[in-house]
Amino acid sequence: MSTIPEMNAETLNRKISDGEDITIVDVREDEEVEEGMIPGALHVRLGELPHRYDELNKEDHHVLVCRSGRRSMKASEFLKDNGFSNVTNLEGGMLSWSGDLSYK
C-alpha cells in the first residue's frame, strides 16, 4: 500500500483558486494532454520523469496528475523515492477534474 497522500479534484481546484503555491505535474502522454490540462500544470510524461525530475524543486508541493490516478501514483512514488517530501496524487486524475482547462 502506498504512503502517498491523495487529494480530490475539488480540493485541488480550491487550492488553485486560493492561490496556494502548488506545482502541478501532468504525467500523461502528448495526445492526452492535447485534450486539455489543468491551467499552469507542467507536462512531464511519466517515461521522461526519471530524466527530468531534477527540473523540479524538491522543496515545493507537487501534485501529480494523469488520466485516472494510477500513473500519477507511480510518478508520486518515484519522486518520494528521490527525495521529494511534499508529493500528492490527484485522486481520480483528469477523469475527476471539472475545473478549467488549458490547451497546448
Automatic annotation (TrEMBL):
Segments passing through the bilayer: none
GO molecular function, one term: transferase activity
Keywords, alphabetical: Transferase
Every Rhodanese domain range: 18-102
Name this polypeptide is given: Rhodanese-related sulfurtransferase
Source organism (scientific name): Salimicrobium halophilum
Native organism taxonomy: Bacteria, Bacillati, Bacillota, Bacilli, Bacillales
